[in-house]
Amino acid sequence: MSKGNGFFGEFKKFILRGNVMDMAVGVIIGGAFTAIVTSLNKDILTPLLGIFGGTDFSNLYVVLGEGEEAPMLMYGNFITAVLNFLITAFVIFCLVKTINAVNDKLSKKKEEEVPAAPVTKTCPYCKSEIAIDATRCPHCTSQLND
Q1: What is the pLDDT of residue 117?
Q2: Contact between residue 130 and residue 123 where contact means Cβ atoms under 8 Å apart
Q3: What is the CA radius of gyration of the chain?
Q4: Which of 92, 98, 139, 142 could be cross-linked to 128 through a Cys-Cys bond (beta carbons 3.0 to 4.6 Å apart)?
Q5: pLDDT, tens digit, for every residue of 100-125?
Q6: Helix H or strand E segment including 115
């Protein structure tokens, strides 16, 4: 079996495609970004909200039952996770919106800078408009040498 064929050859081709590599980089950066947002929420926003509301979300819980072994419903951690999600979604939204605006400006500049290639030319003999790749004028039948 040749090196590029078969199951493993297809897998290698799939893995080395650009968008798969881009996705892998995005997942890694997303994990790091999640750690930053979690720290922002846990270390900065939650204490600030605790000042105004008098509570820290991470310490909110309900004991379900009695005794030391009773399960606890840690809904404060859930509120913290929801805040992390909302902050992350908002920041990503702002980033994507900014990137799209920059791309739109760049694409408009490129469209303005690049003139369209001509599709017609003028016959030097009869001055009729003809196709750019014509070798003979369809109007006066002159042989075109350019």
Answers
A1: 81
A2: yes
A3: 32
A4: 139
A5: 999 888 888 776 666 778 888 899 98
A6: none
